[in-house]
UniProtKB/TrEMBL annotation:
GO cellular component term, pick one: plasma membrane
Organism encoding this protein: Pseudonocardia hydrocarbonoxydans
Full protein name: Na+/H+ antiporter MnhB subunit-related protein domain-containing protein
The keyword Transmembrane appears for this protein: yes
The Na+/H+ antiporter MnhB subunit-related protein domain, residue ranges: 37-159
PANTHER family, sorted: NA(+)/H(+) ANTIPORTER SUBUNIT B, NA(+)_H(+) ANTIPORTER SUBUNIT B
Superkingdom of this protein's organism: Bacteria
Topology of this chain in the membrane: Multi-pass membrane protein
Presence of the UniProt keyword Transmembrane in the record: yes
Membrane-spanning segments: 43-61, 67-92, 99-123, 143-162
Subcellular location: Cell membrane
InterPro entries to which the protein is assigned, alphabetical: CPA3_antiporter_subunitB, MnhB
Protein family membership: Belongs to the CPA3 antiporters (TC 2.A.63) subunit B family.
Sorted UniProt keywords: Cell membrane, Membrane, Transmembrane, Transmembrane helix
Length: 180
C-alpha cells in the first residue's frame, strides 16, 4: 500500500463511529445498533428539549405549560433510550429519577402553599416584573413556578419508567440468551 492509497477498513468495521461526538461513552454492540436512528436522535434530542422549554414558558398565555412541556421532554428521553438503550440514557441524565420526582413535587406543593402563608387563597397567582439591563422589562406569572415543578415531576416519572421497565426488558433478554 502506498502513501496515496486510503487505509482499507474491513466490511464489519466500516460503519462504526470514529468521532467522539457520536458516542455516548460506552458503545453498544455493533450488531444491535441502528446508525441512522442514532444520528437522528443526536440531532432531534436537543431540538425536542428546546421545544419542551418553549411549551413550558409559553403555557401561561396560550395552551401549553409544565405538563405538555414535560411530556415532550419525556418523549425526547424515550427516543434517546430507543436509540441507545440504558447506555445512551445514562450519558444524558446524571440525576436519579426519584430525586427529580421529589424535587418537582416539592416545587409544586410549595408554590401552591406559599400564597396561603401570605394570606391569599391556595394556588393564587401574581404578576412579577423584572427589568433586565440589556433586555428591558420582562414580566411573568408566579404560576410559572408551579409549571416548572410539574415539568420536573413529569420528566422524573418518564425517566423512572424507562429505568424500571428498560432494566426488566434487558434482564429478560439476557436470561433468554438474546443479544441486547
Amino acid at each position: 500500500m502506498t502513501a496515496a492509497e486510503p487505509e482499507r477498513v474491513p466490511f464489519e468495521e466500516w460503519d462504526r463511529p470514529q468521532e467522539g461526538w457520536l458516542l455516548s461513552g460506552r458503545c453498544r454492540d455493533g450488531d444491535d445498533r441502528t446508525l441512522l436512528l442514532e444520528v437522528a436522535t443526536r440531532t432531534l434530542f436537543p431540538t425536542m428539549l428546546v421545544f419542551s422549554l418553549y411549551l413550558l414558558l409559553v403555557g401561561h398565555y396560550s395552551p401549553g405549560g409544565g405538563f405538555s412541556g414535560g411530556l415532550v421532554a419525556g418523549l425526547a428521553f424515550v427516543l434517546r433510550y430507543t436509540a441507545g438503550g440504558d447506555v445512551g440514557l445514562g450519558a444524558v441524565v446524571t440525576v436519579r429519577p426519584p430525586v427529580l420526582i421529589g424535587s418537582g413535587l416539592t416545587i409544586s406543593v410549595l408554590t401552591a402553599l406559599v400564597p396561603l402563608a401570605l394570606g391569599a387563597p391556595v394556588l393564587s397567582s401574581a404578576k412579577l416584573e423584572v427589568v433586565l439591563p440589556l433586555v428591558g422589562s420582562v414580566s411573568t406569572q408566579t404560576s410559572l413556578l408551579l409549571d416548572v415543578g410539574v415539568y420536573v415531576l413529569i420528566v422524573g416519572v418518564v425517566l423512572d419508567l424507562l429505568r424500571s421497565l428498560g432494566s426488566g426488558i434487558a434482564r429478560d433478554m439476557r436470561d433468554a440468551g438474546e443479544r441486547f
